[in-house]
Amino acid sequence: MRVLGVDPGLTRCGIAVVDGGTGRSVRCVAVDVVRTPADAELANRLLAVADALEDWLDRHRPDVVAIERVFSQHNVRTAMGTAQAAGVVALAAARRGLTVAFHTPSEVKAAVTGSGRADKAQVTAMVTRLLGLTEAPRPADAADALALGICHIWRAPMRARLAEAEAKATELARRHKARLAQATSNSPKGTKQ
After folding, report:
1. Residues at the annotated binding site?
2. DSSP 80-107
3. Which of 51, 66, 69 shows the shortest CA–CA distance to 99?
4. pLDDT by residue (tens digit) across 167-193?
5. Which of 1, 25, 39, 42 could bridge across to 20 with cysteines, CB 3.0–4.6 Å?
6. Which segments are annotated as binding site for Mg(2+)?
7. Which residues are catalytic?
8. Any residues with CB less than 8 A from the CB of 49 and at least 6 apart, and which?
9. Which family does it belong to (predicted)?
10. Peptide bond into 137 cis (omega under 30)
11. CA–CA gap between residue 125 and residue 6 (Å, rounded)
12. Residue 6: which of 44, 41, 50 has the closest Cα?
């Protein structure tokens, strides 16, 4: 499985491609950070993110795009920019028919470090170790994009099994309700005395 991981942002948007092999083996294919100037118009900044993403999609042909889910932050303006960048990424992937998966920051941290409360240094250190990199990816946005790719590769099989189990449970519940309705309609109404 090839995953394009994206740590969305307007000033710095981390982007990485990670390949998953048998078991839990992962390999870094490419990593970078898309930067846009803070004083540029919003539309132009989003266009720069979109153009860079299109280029990565063309070059690396991922199977899925994993994006960090945006949570409210203290700075509403930053949260809005992050959400807008994430939307641009999701749109570009959807236009190509790619699956888009959103992962929470704590889910990514837990997958990579074992703790959903790990700090950026811990995430960077584990990403470096897991991928066998000779040096740590910088800035943290690059490491976060790699962590998203790893998280998705490791969690996708579990998510697929859960979705399959939920679908089976829904179908069983539907059949059970249909049998109950059938049994109720076939039962005698009772006799008058």
Report:
1. 7, 68, 141
2. HHHHHHHHHHHHHHHHTT-EEEEE-HHH
3. 66
4. 899 999 999 999 988 888 887 765 555
5. 1
6. 7, 68, 141
7. 7, 68, 141
8. 8, 10, 13, 34, 36, 85, 88, 89
9. Belongs to the RuvC family.
10. no
11. 18
12. 50
Q: Are 15 and 146 in contact (CB under 8 A)?
A: no
The two three-digit tokens of residue 89, written as one number: 């990424």
Answer yes or no: are the C-beta atoms of 69 and 104 closer than 8 Å. Answer: yes
**Residue type at 128?**
T
Q: Put the strands of the sheet holding 64-68 in their side by side order.
A: 26-35, 12-20, 2-7, 64-68, 99-103
Amino acid at 50: A
- One-letter amino acid at 158 equals M
| Residue 14 C-beta-side C-alpha neighbours within 13 Å | 21
